[in-house]
Design goal:
The complex is a heterodimer of chains A (735) and B (445).
Chain A: H1 2-6, H2 22-40, H3 49-61, H4 65-89, H5 94-116, H6 118-128, H7 133-146, H8 149-167, H9 174-186, H10 189-218, H11 221-242, H12 247-260, H13 264-268, H14 275-280, H15 284-294, H16 300-321, H17 323-326, H18 329-349, H19 355-369, H20 375-390, H21 396-412, H22 416-432, H23 439-453, H24 455-481, H25 513-529, E1 543-549, E2 555-561, H26 562-570, E3 576-578, H27 579-586, H28 590-601, E4 609-612, E5 623-626, E6 636-638, H29 651-677, E7 679-681, H30 682-693, H31 701-714, E8 717-721, E9 727-731
Parallel strand pairs in A: 2-6
Antiparallel strand pairs in A: 1-2, 3-5, 4-5, 7-9, 8-9
Helix pairs in contact in A: 2-3, 2-4, 3-4, 3-6, 4-5, 4-7, 5-7, 5-9, 8-10, 9-10, 10-12, 11-12, 11-15, 16-19, 18-19, 18-20, 20-22, 21-23, 22-24, 23-24, 29-30, 29-31
Chain B: E1 7-12, E2 15-20, H1 21-25, H2 32-36, H3 39-42, E3 56-58, H4 62-74, H5 85-95, H6 98-105, E4 115-121, E5 130-133, E6 139-143, E7 146-150, E8 156-160, E9 167-172, E10 177-185, E11 190-197, E12 203-207, E13 209-211, E14 214-216, E15 218-226, E16 230-237, E17 243-248, E18 254-259, E19 271-275, E20 280-285, E21 293-299, E22 304-311, E23 322-328, E24 333-338, E25 343-347, E26 356-357, E27 376-380, E28 383-388, E29 391-396, E30 401-407, E31 414-420, E32 423-428, E33 433-438
Parallel strand pairs in B: 1-3
Antiparallel strand pairs in B: 1-2, 4-33, 5-6, 6-7, 7-8, 9-10, 10-11, 11-12, 13-14, 15-16, 16-17, 17-18, 19-20, 20-21, 21-22, 23-24, 24-25, 25-26, 27-28, 28-29, 29-30, 31-32, 32-33
Helix pairs in contact in B: 4-5
Classes of the chains: A mainly alpha (735), B mainly beta (445).
Chain lengths: 735, 445
């Protein structure tokens, strides 16, 4: 009993732990392993999906996930090693086909294996952060097939060889190629990049380096560009057929670099076929191709633009400085317009209306047009020519086109006020001589100038038109109030407002008695109808129609200037007049008189007077007679006035005059700006003024400073020097 | 009579089921049935037409198969009382139909149709810190130094902790990963911020704060994440590491640190909220951590505060003390709440502006419960939620009218609540119980 009592109770660990049959896992795995073998051997028809799925499920459920997973890895690896051998054994061209076939097999097997192991894929793998079955299958394929030492380089070389063969014109199996490339992409973008794309780009670069060198040695620029374009398109097409879309940028970059960027300068400057030749010959197609190709590379368009600009400046400079051209202003301007048209169409047809090219064109024109100080004058002369005669029979739209083109040139001018000066003179001449062909065209141009430069610019021009209109009315009124003037000479007066018209030196002369009487009548009529006005006669600008009868009774109507009329009238009462007598009678200044006589006595065909002695020049001792032998085919004869000798004042003086003319405008601009800004430093005020005056002329900074400092002395402004170069200007109370 | 060609006959655990392969196709390719009928396998099965009595055997529970078959037929889940839910989940997991069960159980979130679903009781009583809904319908509850993790089936996973330090905040990075912020333990390098696996509870990464190229230990406070994979946390170190730390979710590296300007208590912040449209972070430090309520928007690109407001300097005396704040980007406003659950609004575009309190008068004044819980705010799809005492109010814009009130009497005041995975979780303070609110599946007609 005591023994019994002494018995120790021992608490034993619970012995009946539920233990799954240790062989269970092995047995189950064997079934699954066998199934995987059968799947790889295309022998899956005897397999039951439900059984396999259940077995895999049970393994995971009973914590044999690890065994299942590692079993899968080793089974699949061993299969892939076998596959690798069979691919290696494939001969020649069948290599890729075998690879492709095995790849398809593997994908199918992988899908089936994943189906069986779906439960593991869904539960065991995420919680243990292992690679999912599908990705695992791809990784194993990558490591055992693609990266196996015997396949990796062979695959790469085969692919590159195929691309090379296609580049040299052979037809290859693009479908197979696409499948293989797709496989590389499926294995991850890194595999595609490392195992194909990178070497592909390197080989391509080498290929195009060699080829471009060949081309550049044997082709002209146009041909080369055609070939480069073709290659580029081929590569883009290749990408769409069997490469990753992301490769397009990379391979085109290679072609662009090797074929274009590296040869850019030699292409542009290629002898007899480079850019300059293309421009000269208007080769729109080639230029367009060059533009499109060069646009793809850094600095490509810049290169084209620079060459074009320097060529344009060079030819433009030659054009405007060619002394031959200066002889004919109309031809000069026409040349400029033609040049502009030429480049406009190049830019629109070949350079896809690129703004930067348009800017380059504009700046080039601005550059060389202003190289010739007479450009403003010439442009005005061109307009003058067109408006005098050139526009006859031209439709309204064409007139607009021509005027628009002229405006374009006008825009390039820096010294717009010089143009204005000439334009005013030329317009005055056209109006006074009644030579303008189209009032509409004249007005249209003025409207254009107005929109371009503002009201101020054209107010005087418009005043001239108003004067013309008022004069007509005045003359009608004059003759209506003097009905007795029906017979005798007819007087036509144009009353010009002072200031609106270009100033002319007022040269007076003695009019023939009957004319001066008529003038007096007009004066009293005019001053009677308008109060507070003053009339002065600009006899040097008038014209007259004189009827003359010569020795043998030939009658002509002579169209002459007022001076010439005065001289001719003297011969009504005398046969012979000496120079001195004429000078005394008419009081025409010597230089004008000499020109006047010269044009009537020395010009062949117009020599209504005879001179003794016969010579080209008029001497003070000469004597004049009516030329009885004067003949002309026409009844009306226009006798011009010999153009004055080249203006004697030197160019410099004109410049100085111009600077004087500009002074009030500069002053006005400064005051305008200071009124609104009050405080401004020195440099800014110069900048502002220059900007404001731009529409009229390019202000010379030194001149600006000069005017500014003069103004500072005159008005109550204060300049506070801050630093040496910077002065703040304060405007203190200016009305 | 013609037999439908796609008819299939199953013997599941001894019971015969007849259905069609079309019905089973609703399971999707990524399921048992999807693979079963795939060309790779289907050809190897006996073909019905030739042998109408042939059947496929599946060694599973027939009751559950019936429920799941009806789920595939109708899209509705009906679980008879005698079938344990866990068993059904187990079976659904076998067939790969768990997602179907999950989406049939409750509908898309609609704050005004919420129904109380169930309560889950915690282990230790009292004082939960925070509850956070996960993206898939699960949640985690911070409690002292532990965080308990539940999946959407309310199965509890191994709890997580960071060196057993007191947990300040938790945030879901995705349906598998949770970040936890905890207090530091002086001199030990413990605490800070860690990334945990939801399913296994293992620590996968510990985030570090570097100051002048030296790793510092720190206390991590409020957390926020942004859609461009950044993590924000208010940080408090012992030297200069006061402010907001920013980490990259993918690399885990610290990518930025906004050192706080004096007096702004960014490192103590109670609430961080990333504003996607404005590309800045709302930082709110509230009573009782500070006497005043500091709210600011921090722009990390320009390293400056683009909005700030310090409410309360003049208001500490009256009872309008801000207890929580939330930015509502769509309305350019910040909503705040005081301890009487009165809502106030501030214009997000105007710094230093004042709070416009809504005139809604509540009967609550002067009727404080014994153990008060401060109100919390949440925003979900344009609806504003505010918890007070043992209920949660739902307000709809633009005038923020009260449209629903959620109340479950058991467990005392609600100390925190969270919306996510089409569920609302409310954590009670007294009994350590949390309630789950779901939107029922849409009506049949």
């Amino acid at each position: 009993m005591s023994n019994q009592k002494k018995r120790n109770f021992q608490i034993e660990a619970f012995k009946h732990r539920v233990v799954v049959d240790p062989k269970y896992a092995d047995k189950t795995w064997k079934i699954l392993e066998h199934a995987i073998h059968e799947i790889y051997n295309h022998n899956a028809s005897g397999l039951s999906f439900e059984e396999l799925y259940r077995n895999a499920y049970n393994m995971v459920l009973h914590k044999f996930g690890e065994k299942l997973y590692s079993g899968l890895v080793s089974t699949m690896t061993s299969h892939l090693k076998e596959i690798s051998k069979s691919i290696e054994a494939a001969q020649g061209d069948s290599f890729l086909e075998e690879l492709n076939r095995k790849w398809n097999d593997h994908n199918k097997a992988l899908q089936m294996i994943r189906d069986i192991l779906m439960y593991m894929d869904r539960t065991y793998i995420p919680s243990t952060h292992k690679t999912p079955v599908h990705e695992l299958g791809l990784n194993l394929w990558r490591d055992n097939i693609i990266h196996s030492s015997k396949i990796q380089t062979r695959l790469l070389n085969t692919l590159l060889e195929l691309v090379h063969r296609e580049r040299t014109g052979e037809v290859i199996d693009r479908g197979l190629m696409r499948n293989i490339i797709k496989m590389l992409m499926d294995l991850g973008s890194l595999v595609y990049q490392e195992d194909f794309e990178k070497p592909f780009l390197e080989v391509s670069a080498e290929f195009y380096k060699v080829e471009s060198q060949e081309f550049i040695e044997c082709c002209d620029c146009g041909e080369y560009l055609k070939k480069a374009e073709k290659r580029l398109n081929e590569e883009i097409e290749r990408v769409t057929h069997y490469l990753d879309a992301k490769s397009e940028v990379k391979i085109t970059n290679v072609v662009e670099k090797e074929m274009i960027a590296n040869h850019m300068l030699s292409l542009v400057h290629m002898e007899n076929s480079g850019l300059v030749n293309m421009l000269l010959d208007d080769k729109y197609e080639d230029l367009g191709r060059m533009y499109n190709l060069f646009r793809r590379v850094p600095n490509g368009l810049l290169t084209i633009r620079e060459v074009m600009t320097s060529h344009l400046r060079e030819t433009g400079k030659q054009l405007v400085t060619d002394p031959e051209r200066l002889k004919d202003p109309v031809e000069f301007v026409q040349r400029l317009l033609d040049e502009k048209d030429k480049y406009d169409s190049i830019i629109s047809l070949a350079f896809s209306n690129d703004k930067t090219f348009q800017n380059a064109l504009n700046s080039s024109f601005e550059y060389f047009i202003n190289l010739n100080a007479r450009s403003p004058e010439f442009i005005s002369l061109f307009v003058d020519d067109k408006l005098r005669k050139g526009l006859k029979g031209v439709s309204e739209e064409d007139v607009e086109v021509i005027l628009d083109k002229v405006m374009m040139l006008f825009r390039y001018l820096q010294e717009k006020d010089v143009f204005e000066k000439y334009y005013k003179q030329h317009l005055a001449k056209r109006l006074l001589s009644g030579k303008t062909v189209s009032d509409d065209a004249e007005r249209s141009l003025i409207v254009k100038l107005k929109t371009e430069c503002g009201y101020q610019f054209t107010s005087k021009l418009e005043g001239m038109f108003t004067d013309m209109k008022t004069s007509q009315d005045t003359m009608q009124g004059f003759y209506a109030s003097h009905p007795e003037l029906g017979d005798g000479p007819t007087l036509v007066v144009q009353v010009l407002t002072t200031g609106s018209w270009p100033t002319q030196p007022n040269v007076t002369c003695n009019l023939p008695a009957e004319m001066s009487a008529l003038c007096e009548k007009f004066r009293s009529y005019y001053l009677g109808t308008h109060t507070g006005r003053r009339l002065s006669w600009q006899t040097n600008m008038g014209t007259a129609d004189v009827k003359a009868t010569f020795g043998k009774g030939q009658k002509h109507e002579l169209n002459v200037s007022t001076f010439q009329m005065c001289v001719l009238m003297l011969f009504n009462n005398a046969d012979r007049l000496s120079y001195k007598e004429i000078e005394q009678a008419t009081e025409i200044p010597a230089s004008d008189l000499k020109r006047c006589l010269q044009s009537m006595a020395c010009v062949k065909g117009k020599n209504v007077l005879r001179k003794e002695p016969m010579s080209k020049d008029i001497g003070e001792e000469d004597a004049f007679f009516v030329n009885d032998k004067f003949t002309s085919k026409f009844y009306k004869v226009k006798i011009g006035t010999v153009v004055a000798q080249k203006e004697s004042e030197p160019e410099k003086q004109e410049t100085r005059q111009r600077e004087e003319d500009r002074k009030p405008q500069i002053e006005a601009a400064i005051v305008r700006i200071m009124k609104s800004r009050r405080v401004l430093d020195h440099n800014n005020i110069i900048a502002e003024v220059t900007k404001q005056l731009q529409s009229r002329f390019l202000a010379n900074p030194r001149r600006l400073r000069n005017v500014l400092s003069l103004l500072l002395n005159e008005i109550s402004w204060r300049g506070i020097p801050l630093t040496e170069n910077c002065t703040v200007i304060l405007l203190e109370g200016i009305a | 009579m013609k037999i439908a060609k796609d008819r299939v006959r199953f013997n599941v655990g001894g019971r015969i089921f007849e259905t069609t392969s079309t019905t089973l196709a609703n399971a999707g390719r990524n399921s048992f049935f999807g693979a079963f009928f795939d060309d790779n396998w289907a050809l190897k099965q006996p073909i019905n037409d030739l042998n109408p009595n042939s059947e496929f055997y599946i060694d599973r529970n027939p009751d559950c198969f019936g429920i799941l078959l009806d789920l595939l037929r109708t899209g509705d889940l009906h679980i008879p009382p005698h079938v344990p839910e866990r068993l059904l989940h187990r079976e659904a997991s076998f067939y790969g139909l768990l997602d179907h069960v999950r989406s049939a159980k409750w509908g898309p979130f609609d704050a005004n149709r919420l129904r109380y679903s169930r309560s889950v009781t915690g282990r230790a009583p009292g004082d939960g810190t925070a509850i956070r809904a996960g993206p898939d319908g699960g949640c985690c509850v911070a409690h002292g130094s532990m965080v308990r993790v539940y999946d959407w089936m309310m199965e509890e996973h191994p709890p997580i902790n960071l060196d057993y330090q007191r947990v300040n905040d938790i945030a879901w990075v995705d349906s598998e990963n949770v970040i936890l912020s905890a207090c530091e333990r002086l001199g030990r390098g413990d605490g800070g911020m860690g990334l945990f696996s939801k399913s296994t509870g293992e620590l996968r990464y510990k985030f570090q704060v570097c100051h002048e190229n030296r790793v510092k230990s720190y206390t991590a406070g409020a957390l926020s994440t942004s859609s461009d994979y950044r993590i924000f946390s208010s940080c408090k170190g012992r030297s200069n590491e006061y402010g907001i730390g920013v980490w990259d979710q993918i690399t885990g590296k610290q990518i930025d640190f906004f050192y706080e300007s004096p007096g702004w208590s960014l490192g103590d912040a109670d609430k961080l909220q990333w504003l996607n449209g404005r590309n800045c972070l709302l930082v709110a430090t509230l009573f009782p951590r500070k006497d005043n309520c500091y709210i600011s928007l921090v722009d990390f690109r320009e390293k400056r505060m683009v909005f700030w407001s310090d409410i309360g300097a003049s208001m500490t005396v009256d009872e309008k003390r801000v207890r929580d704040a939330i930015a509502m980007e769509d309305c350019n406003a910040i909503c705040v709440v005081n301890e009487y659950e009165e809502l106030g609004f501030m214009d997000l575009r105007m710094s230093g502006g004042s709070v416009r309190w809504s005139s809604r008068s509540r009967l609550m004044k002067g009727k404080m419960p014994d153990e008060p819980c401060y109100p919390k705010l949440a925003l979900h799809e344009g609806q504003l939620f505010s918890s007070m005492d043992d209920s949660i109010s739902v307000f709809c814009g633009p005038d923020w009218v009260l449209t629903s009130r959620l109340r479950q009497s058991y467990g005392g005041s609600i100390c925190d609540f969270s919306i996510g995975g089409d569920r609302l979780f409310a954590l009670h303070s007294e009994e350590n119980v949390f309630d789950i609110w779901e939107t029922p599946p849409p009506p049949i007609l």
